[in-house]
């Protein structure tokens, strides 16, 4: 049997933009897939509100309130939901050793062939978005400083220590084989151990997975293969683009939606760019005045 390919998303909360973003990401990814319909990856979504995807030919799993509470450590660290959700999907599919799983953040879209993602995942190589920073280069005032130069004991009795190459990769893209799925469990041990050490960084989820994967494989960056609208100004504009797209094409069939998705632009008009700069400057001025108030 040939290895299976899965395109996956983990979505929680009630922000409509996340759900519309995921739907458009699915359309954009498949619209730029080179090959037959049968060669496409199977799309799998794990979501708190699965009803947003009922009109798409995809596989759905629901996040229960109990799972959300457990995965977020009783709502103290909600970024852990991605880690636990992806491991849950690996088990539910189930993901065999040679199968490939690709996770994408919901604010991504594509304008070039997307086969490169699965072509770049192997038993020796996983994907993440890009290497953000070596933890050792951060100042002593940074949240990660508290975990350096320490032997940290994990739940399984093993010891973790930051090494000279310990680099945090952004996790907007995660691509693994089934043989690498155990990295999610090691990363989870690391998340919880580092929190106990007093590390309060909200990026622990992606740092822990970076460290978990680099123990067993090399990492390749996928940043140059996609587009995103993750900054605040771009996201505000992206929300408008998505809303208009799904309003205009609500009656179209799935294959027709794929064609329409290829013509969508998230480029902001100059007026929106200027408005975004004005908003940022006014926000900084307000913050400055609030800090200086007696």
TrEMBL record:
The lineage of its organism: Bacteria, Pseudomonadati, Pseudomonadota, Gammaproteobacteria, Vibrionales. This is Glycosyl transferase. InterPro entries: Nucleotide-diphossugar_trans. It comes from Vibrio japonicus.
């Amino acid at each position: 049997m040939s290895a299976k390919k899965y395109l996956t998303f983990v979505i929680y909360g009630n922000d409509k933009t996340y759900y519309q973003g995921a739907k458009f990401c699915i359309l954009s990814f498949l619209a730029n897939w080179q090959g037959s319909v049968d060669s496409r990856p199977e799309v799998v979504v794990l979501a708190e509100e699965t009803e947003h995807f009922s009109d798409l030919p995809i596989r759905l799993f629901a996040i229960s309130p109990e799972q959300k509470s457990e995965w977020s450590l009783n709502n103290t660290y909600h970024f852990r939901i991605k880690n636990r959700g992806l491991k849950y999907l690996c088990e539910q599919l189930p993901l065999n050793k040679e199968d490939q799983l690709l996770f994408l953040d919901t604010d991504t879209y594509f304008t070039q062939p997307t086969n490169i993602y699965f072509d770049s995942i192997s038993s020796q190589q996983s994907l993440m978005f890009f290497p953000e920073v070596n933890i050792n280069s951060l100042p002593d005032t940074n949240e990660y400083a508290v975990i350096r130069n320490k032997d940290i004991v994990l739940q399984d009795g093993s010891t973790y220590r930051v090494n000279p190459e310990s680099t945090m990769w952004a996790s907007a893209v995660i691509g693994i084989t089934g043989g690498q799925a155990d990295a999610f469990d090691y990363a989870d041990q690391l998340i919880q151990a580092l929190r106990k050490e007093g590390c309060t960084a909200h990026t622990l989820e992606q740092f822990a997975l970076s460290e978990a994967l680099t123990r067993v494989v090399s990492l390749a960056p996928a940043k140059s293969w996609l587009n995103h609208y993750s900054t605040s100004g771009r996201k505000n504009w992206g929300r408008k683009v998505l809303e208009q797209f799904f309003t205009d094409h609500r009656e179209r069939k799935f294959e027709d939606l794929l064609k329409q998705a290829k013509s969508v632009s998230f480029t902001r008009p100059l007026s929106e760019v200027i408005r975004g700069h004005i908003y940022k400057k006014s926000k900084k001025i307000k913050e400055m005045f609030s800090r200086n108030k007696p």
